[in-house]
Amino acid sequence: MNKLTTIESHFLQQQKLYPEVNHEVTDLLHDVAFAAKLVRREVVRAGLADILGLAGTTNVQGEEVKKLDLFANEKIISAIGQHGRFALMGSEENDSVIVPPKNDTGNYVLLFDPLDGSSNIDVNVSVGTIFSIYRIKSDDPGKASLDDCLQKGAEQIAAGYVIYGSSVVMVYTTGHGVHGFTYDPTIGEFLLSHENIVTPERGKYYSANEGSWHEFNEGTKRFLDYLKEEDKATGRPYSTRYIGSFVADFHRNLLTGGVFIYPATKKHKNGKLRLMYEANPMAFICEQAGGRATDGERRILDIQPEELHQRTPLYIGSKHDVLIAEEFEQGKR
Ligand SMILES: O=P(O)(O)OC[C@H]1O[C@](O)(COP(=O)(O)O)[C@@H](O)[C@@H]1O
Ligand SMILES: [Mg+2]
Ligand SMILES: [Mg+2]
What we know:
Pfam families: FBPase, FBPase_C. By secondary structure, this protein is of the alpha+beta class.
């Protein structure tokens, strides 16, 4: 693996190898990588830049919005929207679809979570940005509508995330493997650091907010108890790891093996995470790395979306572990 490969040159390599990864797609990914650099610049000095704390507004999810949520949202919309390559955008922080400042040539839609892990922003714990790209159904950007945003996850043409942690890493897929790039601030480039990521078939970590134990259904409780039982032959007990930033929990499990679950609970009847800009992009990456992502019954990528901000229960990570979770959720174990 040549660690001097920039993410932009990797996009071009994909363009040469795979016809559907055309120059439009590589330009879109280039825009996303650029926006990530702008968001990173503020995240790493957030404590100095007066962008910690609450913005004083709530979003369509009914959640209190953080200043950094809004900053990242505005940066992504303006930095990416200036090029006109996206006909429409959808963000966790905007009630309805966004018509970018310029959208005359864009046959694509971008759905994104500008800042994931908002509860960790003010306490210097890893947060991230998640994105998902679709091609619009018609060839006329002017005709693009919400319908173009509500496509099944299996229709994604590219997806990825950026994790702002001890180092900043961007991970993406165009349906041809999963690749990670670490940001080198001395040269301002994302350099290839994780080529062709493959997630272990069986993990050693589980991520669940057990603080909601009393809200979990019996299947979920029995699955978590199963992971905590002693059985060397199946690598149990698993260790618990829960950062509370989906991007960070997912990234760890992707590299080391493990399972992240956010099931339906009494409080979140349809789970907490959003299908279009959290579950779908991560499910695409997870499957491309050999893992599995379901809502306990259905493959996430096969779910037909109905709303931009709909939520879904989520079981994602090492294939073996997610299959077992499903068996418990379906009462087969
Ligand atoms: O605090 P809880 O209920 O465990 O929820 C944590 C989950 O909520 C999230 O913060 C939701 O995402 P946002 O921060 O983008 O709203 C996930 O990153 C995380 O996995
Ligand atoms: Mg999120
Ligand atoms: Mg968010």
